[in-house]
Write a structure and sequence with these properties.
Helix content is 42%, strand content 14%. With 394 residues, it is an alpha/beta fold. The protein has a 7-stranded mixed sheet, with helices on both faces. Strand 4, helix 6 and strand 5 form a beta-alpha-beta unit. Helix 3 crosses helix 4, helix 3 crosses helix 7 and helix 10 packs parallel to helix 15. The longest helix is centred in the last third of the chain and has 21 residues. Bound molecules: pyridoxal-5'-phosphate (PLP).
Length: 394
């Protein structure tokens, strides 16, 4: 099965991990702060805090800005559940905003319509690696005195108006899961230009305790104080050694993804029933995902039928994401009636196509050929004049 995403690990990465494994500190040693310094440099932010996952990064970010019971945080309807779960971990309430069906990026107009006196933050999610419209989101955040948090788990290596993602929102959360731009196996980080928020997140990742084991050793003391309630969200030296090695290759990984995305765009310019998401100006995408929309209404064939066909052909397509409030737990907590109409409609159309740096051009062409043949076979079977004209219009 051709996977939809996959890590790229080379001999240098393996050597970096082996060398960390032979050092005296396996967790929270020097590699953690070195990795944080390199991440801050790569994202042109002043602080980076590395954590055990992207989910931990989101939780730490919401905890640092003081999200608690009674606070509302506006999140996109189409995102991974972790984005809104992390609000709930802090006792806050996620409020879902609709997305633009052309890009699946959160719609600033819908965000503004959902602001109440309880709203404390808005979350941008850079779907598929394309940055949100940070100018408009920043204007809304400033107008209503809200904190702008970016879930940039898809967009490390992307930029908005030449600013690297990681330096644009108040807090930016990344994931280093194996399918992401770089990997630390599991892992994540938050970047910010606010040193006080960074200090809070560092405490939060280690139980809310005011100093680290290394600091106590250096100071010759055994004492520590737990200032706030935190978690064990620490990341190990092994993972950060891998992260540093991977980060060096980020530009090459992004170039490889861009090349694959370009082929997909070229190949699908005139395929009936198929369109790709639109790329907006003044942004570069990390091309974490290539997502196509299947016109199930004109074709009369459901997205899931195409999905099954591609899986049968050993093409590991995926779907990102079902609107969060449609999941059972959310329906139990928030009721059955939540809806964001554009998200609900576009969810029926989307399929994520394989893209990862080591994917060969032959594989990309195999994917596009299989989809084109599927689409053409439907066009060929269209018998009534009405269906033919719809199919021809594509
Ligand atoms: C948009 C988004 N947010 C949050 C996460 C959570 O990251 P992690 O899996 O590292 O906890 C992911 C990872 O899949 C994601 O894609």
């Amino acid at each position: 099965m051709l996977p939809y995403g996959k890590q790229t690990i080379d001999a240098e990465d393996i050597e970096a991990v082996l060398s960390a494994l032979s050092s005296s500190m396996l967790t929270t040693g020097p590699a953690v702060s070195q990795f944080e310094a390199r991440l801050a440099e790569a994202t042109r932010s002043t602080s980076a805090v590395a954590l055990s996952s992207g989910t931990a990064a989101l939780h730490a970010a919401f905890a640092a800005i003081g999200i608690s019971e009674g606070d509302e945080v506006i999140v996109p309807a189409i995102t991974f559940v972790a984005t809104s779960n992390a609000v709930i971990y802090c006792g806050g309430t996620p409020v879902f905003a609709d997305v633009d069906p052309d890009t699946l990026l959160v719609d600033p107009v819908d965000i503004e319509s959902k602001i109440t006196p309880r709203t404390k933050a808005i979350v941008a999610m850079d779907y598929a690696g394309q940055p949100c419209d940070y100018d408009r989101l920043r204007a809304i955040a400033d107008k209503y005195n809200l904190i702008l948090v970016a879930d940039s788990c898809h967009s490390l290596g992307a930029s908005f108006k030449s600013h690297p993602i990681g330096s644009v929102a108040d807090l930016t959360c990344f994931s280093f899961h194996p399918v992401k731009a770089i990997t630390t196996c599991e892992g994540g980080a938050v970047t910010t230009n606010d040193s006080e928020l960074a200090a809070r997140m560092k405490r939060f990742r280690s139980h809310g305790i005011d100093n680290t084991h290394s600091q106590r050793t250096q100071a010759g003391t055994h004492q520590y104080d737990m200032l706030t309630l935190g978690c064990n969200y620490r990341i190990s030296d092994l993972q950060c050694a891998l992260g540093m090695s991977q980060l060096k290759k980020l530009p090459a990984f992004i170039d490889a993804r861009e090349n694959i995305a370009r082929i997909y765009h070229q190949q699908f310019t005139d395929t009936p029933f198929v369109s790709l998401l639109k790329q907006k100006d003044f942004r570069t995408s990390a091309n974490h995902l290539v997502v196509m929309k299947w016109d199930h209404q004109s074709s009369g064939v459901s997205r899931d039928e195409l999905f099954r066909h591609l899986r049968d052909q050993q093409i590991g397509v995926n779907v990102h994401y079902r609107p969060v409030y449609q999941h059972s737990w959310y329906r139990q907590q928030f009721g059955e009636n939540l809806t964001c109409p554009k998200s609900d409609a576009v969810y029926q159309q989307i399929i994520t196509l394989p893209v990862f740096p080591l994917m060969s051009e032959i594989d990309v062409h195999r994917v596009t050929k299989t989809i084109k043949e599927f689409a053409t076979s439907i066009t060929a079977f269209a018998t009534t004049p009405e269906t033919v004209s719809i199919a021809a219009a594509g």
